[in-house]
Write a structure and sequence with these properties.
Radius of gyration: 16 Å
Number of domains: 2
Order of helices and strands: HEHEHEHEHEH
Largest sheet: 3 strands, parallel
CATH superfamily of the largest domain: Alpha/Beta hydrolase fold, catalytic domain
CATH class of the largest domain: Alpha Beta
Oligomer: single chain
Structural class: alpha/beta
Mean pLDDT: 96
Shape: globular
Number of strands: 5
Length: 147
């Protein structure tokens, strides 16, 4: 999508808006370095250590127990049944699970190859919501700091 916009609209300002996983993955796209502005909304690390109390236990349970059980039973992650999110293919859910178990989240994944987080010099504005159960501020702050 970014390549299309860059090729077809070379003379216009380009603002990339990334919400949740969309904001997490911006640094994987080489063309993100050519954006004029980046806005992140609730783009967080999914590492369970960023949550507190029961939410921390829930996140740990998701990565270490629930995902393996559901993937084993169904062969994919039936997210629509449990959370309203989209269902995920097994390999996608396992990759996300691997990230969520690691302190460095997706930065820990050697299969991603070259990333561009450190090369993005575009101004970034990041929004998080204080009482967001899916994206605690500390997790969103960590993700923003990767850019």
């Amino acid at each position: 999508m970014l390549q299309y916009v860059l090729s077809n609209y070379p003379d216009t300002q380009k603002c990339l808006l990334g919400h949740s996983i969309g904001g997490q993955l911006v640094g994987l796209a080489p063309s993100a370095t050519q954006m004029d502005k980046i806005v992140l909304v609730a783009a967080q690390s999914g590492n369970w250590r960023f949550w507190e109390g029961r939410a921390k236990a829930r996140m740990w349970f998701n990565w270490y127990v629930l995902f393996p059980v559901l993937l084993g039973l169904f062969g994919y992650l039936p997210s629509k049944r449990f959370s309203g999110m989209e269902n995920l293919p097994k390999h996608v859910a396992n990759q996300w699970r691997s990230w969520g178990k690691h302190r460095e989240y997706l930065m820990s994944d050697p299969t991603l190859g070259e990333t561009y987080f450190g090369e993005i010099t575009t101004p970034i504005t990041a929004f998080s919501i204080d009482d967001d159960d899916f994206a605690p501020k500390i997790a969103a702050d960590w993700m923003t700091a990767q850019y």
